[in-house]
Design brief:
Radius of gyration: 75 Å
Helix content: over 70%
Structural class: mainly alpha
Oligomer: single chain
Number of helices: 8
Shape: flat
């Protein structure tokens, strides 16, 4: 009720407050009021306030003070307690600020004293520097005076030297003019001599030009003869080259014929060896069994005849194919030669190069055909030997099956197996010998071709006698 009475008594100042801070300041600070009026207003409010809103419900009854000591009273208004705490805190901060300012003032005083000492030392140093500078300036002035005196002496010496130089230059100029006069006189004499020499040189050049024209005519005639001689030499070399190529082609054809002859001889020898081995086997088997011998001989002869007919037909087919290829090559060569005669020299050389390539390819092809023919003959001989061995083994197995119970026939079967084994070994040996002969023939062919190529390279065209 007192707070309300206090606010009602201060109604005038509160009505003039506009901002919230003004209200807070009013209630947080002391204000001058009429205390009698405030107490009277508080009693009036106590009596006139209805009971349902009267604050006596929340407030306790008044109690008298205790005797001897004051009771514990902690129900002061919070804003008053906070205000006192804030005031104490403010005072403490002011004291700290005062101490800080005092410390700063002491520091500044020390700093000013230090600066004063430094300034005094700097002034003393500057005074010393000024004194030293004055001494140096005096020394420099003395040196400048000495330098001026020395320059005056140098100027006087330079003046004397220049006067001497002028005198020497005057003497040298006079001497040079005299020398120039003499040089011009000698130049005039030299020009007169040059005119005379040019006249003599003109006469000599005319004579030498006539002589050079005659020599040039002789050189042209000599070059003409040398050119004719070179043409004749080129013709001789080309003809010699053609002859060497013809000889090489002829030797190569002869070599191929010899190789074919050797291959035919080897084929005949192989066939004879095969026949001998077959006949030996058949003769040995005929001694054991006449019927088996007769049948085997008949079958072997019939097979041999078939094989001979096959080999003859294969050889004829190969020869016909070779003849056709050779005829075609000859026809192509004839057409190319006919075309070469009608074309120009450059085209003729190009076609000749192509013919050389074709000839080399045909030689390689013929060699491959010969090698293939030898390989086919070798395989054919192997097949014949295998067929013969197979027939002998079949015949021996039939004989063994028919005469299994008799010991005599078993002995004959063992002898037959030994004979077949020996015949097989002999056939294998003959086949290996034929292979070795064939390899030796091929190596000989390669060596002969290399030898012919080296001979053709080493040959030189015959020297043409100079006219």
């Amino acid at each position: 009720m007192v707070v309300v009475a206090y606010a009602m008594s201060a109604r005038g100042p509160l009505m003039q407050c506009i901002e919230l801070d003004d209200f807070k300041y009013f209630y947080h600070h002391r204000n001058a009021v009429d205390i009698k009026h405030v107490v009277k207003e508080a009693y009036r409010l106590m009596e006139s306030t209805p009971k349902d809103i009267h604050p006596e419900k929340t407030l306790e009854d008044f109690k008298p003070l205790t005797v001897g000591q004051y009771p514990v009273f902690n129900k002061y208004p919070k804003f008053i307690v906070d205000y006192q705490v804030q005031e104490r805190e403010r005072i403490r901060h002011e004291e700290m600020e005062y101490m800080r300012q005092k410390h700063l003032s002491l520091e500044m005083q020390k700093e000013t004293q230090k600066r004063q000492q430094e300034e005094e030392a700097w002034y003393r140093q500057q005074q010393l520097l000024l004194e030293a500078e004055d001494k140096r300036r005096k020394l420099i002035q003395d040196e400048e005076v000495k330098l001026v005196d020395q320059r005056k002496r140098l100027y006087a010496m330079n003046r004397e030297v220049k006067l001497k130089e002028l005198q020497l230059l005057d003497a040298a100029r006079r001497k040079f003019l005299h020398f120039q006069k003499q040089q011009r006189e000698s130049e005039l004499k030299r020009l007169d001599d040059e005119v005379q020499r040019k006249a003599l040189q003109r006469d000599q050049e005319t004579e030498t030009a006539m002589e050079e024209a005659e020599i040039r005519n002789l050189e042209l005639q000599l070059q003409k003869k040398m050119f004719e001689q070179d043409l004749f030499r080129e013709f001789a070399t080309s003809s010699h080259h053609l002859r060497t190529e013809q000889d090489m082609h002829r030797k190569q054809s002869e070599l191929e014929e010899r190789i074919q002859e050797k291959l035919r001889d080897a084929e005949r020898e192989r066939q004879m060896e095969i026949r001998k081995t077959l006949q030996d086997g058949l003769a040995k088997s005929s001694q054991q069994n006449i019927e088996a011998w007769a049948s085997n001989e008949y079958e072997s002869r019939r097979r041999l005849q078939d094989l001979e007919r096959e080999t003859m037909s294969l050889q004829l087919a190969k020869r016909n194919a070779e003849n056709r290829s050779l005829e075609k090559e000859v026809q192509d060569l004839m057409t190319k030669v006919q075309d070469r005669k009608d074309t120009e020299t450059e085209v003729a050389h190009m076609e000749l190069y192509e013919q050389k390539q074709d000839a080399a390819e045909s030689g390689q092809r013929r060699l491959r055909l010969l090698e293939e023919e030898g390989y086919v003959a070798h395989e054919h001989g192997k097949s014949l030997t295998q067929d013969a061995l197979y027939n002998l083994n079949n015949n021996s197995s039939r004989l063994g099956n028919t005469t299994l119970n008799s010991t005599k026939q078993s002995d004959m079967y063992q002898t037959l197996q030994t004979t077949t084994n020996s015949s097989g070994v002999s056939l294998e040996r003959s086949g290996r010998a034929f292979d070795e002969k064939e390899i030796a023939l091929l190596n000989e062919v390669r060596n002969l071709r290399q030898r012919l190529a080296l001979e053709n390279r080493s040959k030189r065209p015959p020297a043409v006698p100079c006219e």
